[in-house]
Amino acid sequence: MTAGRILARAHDKGEFSGAAWAYGTSAGPVGRDTLGTLSRDGAPVGDDTLWDLASVTKPIVGLAVMALVESGELTLDDTVESWLPDYAGTDKAGITVHELLTHTSRIPGRQPLYRHCPTRRDLLDTLVRLPLRERPGVEYSSQGFMILGMIAESAAGVPLDRLVRERVTAPLGLDETRFLLPEHDRARAAATEDCPWRGRIVQGTVHDENAEVLGGVAGHAGMFGTLDDLSKLGQALCRGGDGVVAPHTLAVMTGTRTGGRALAWKGHEPRLGSGGDLLTPSAYGHDGFTGTSLWVDPELDFYAVLLTNRVHPSRDSNGIARIRRTFHNAAVTRTLS
């Protein structure tokens, strides 16, 4: 079955209202298409549709962090307290950039801080006080990436959105990939959840509630992008980080594996991994809660972008896990055939 047919069947089952996808090599796409609508009864998905990337924001921010490491403005062993004075003397003071990037910081993840933190200041103050896990190990932590984003801002001396634009998206020509969509662009964004907390369907503003309280710009979520932009990023990564970081820097970033985690990326898992069954151990990628993903296999010279709004109108469906695996199996087979 083709990748397009897999996604068409998922759409017919109501797993999402719209999707866009591309897969190929460093030379360009081998397959590319869109289907469905921006919302259940909305306009058709188009080439200019903006997708809430959710946690695919993390590796994009991670690339900006590695660019700072390359330039000597930051090291992987720098500690939280060396860049963020509010953390001096706390249990997080000695956590390193490396630990934040690999989700080994012991900062608890999946914390709905927005429920009791109505302002950015409230949330940041709560983050400082959030107790660490007692035992070391890997725990996926958006909260850790919130702190990482602030470290990157401090090291660069510019706001995070500007840093990402200057170090990642502008050099690659990703003109549509950004935080904070202007109001006139929101109508071409794919809708996400009919959110009980907000009391409305979210479209064109960040789906992640913690990121919204933080103002829409954060290290863990908040970026929007188009299919062609994410495809350009996949191609650049296949070329070894062309235009963003040097090949050896990307090799360190993606080859450093701790409990299945690379630096801001997820390493490929052969069993039940979202990259499917057919990628090599060198593959890496990242998923977004909204139904997005980007996977790259440097050994195969292969990338795949899948953009859906699987949380529209509800986050209750769990079908995206198998959809991702079957999509990537079909995409890599078509690319290498």
Automatic annotation (TrEMBL):
InterPro entries: Beta-lactam-related, Beta-lactam/transpept-like, Diverse_Enzym_Activities. Residues 8-318 form the Beta-lactamase-related domain. This is Class A beta-lactamase-related serine hydrolase. It holds the Pfam family Beta-lactamase. PANTHER family: BETA-LACTAMASE-RELATED, BETA-LACTAMASE-RELATED DOMAIN-CONTAINING PROTEIN. It comes from Nonomuraea mesophila. It comes from the Bacteria. Keywords: Hydrolase. GO terms for molecular function: hydrolase activity. Signal peptide: none annotated.
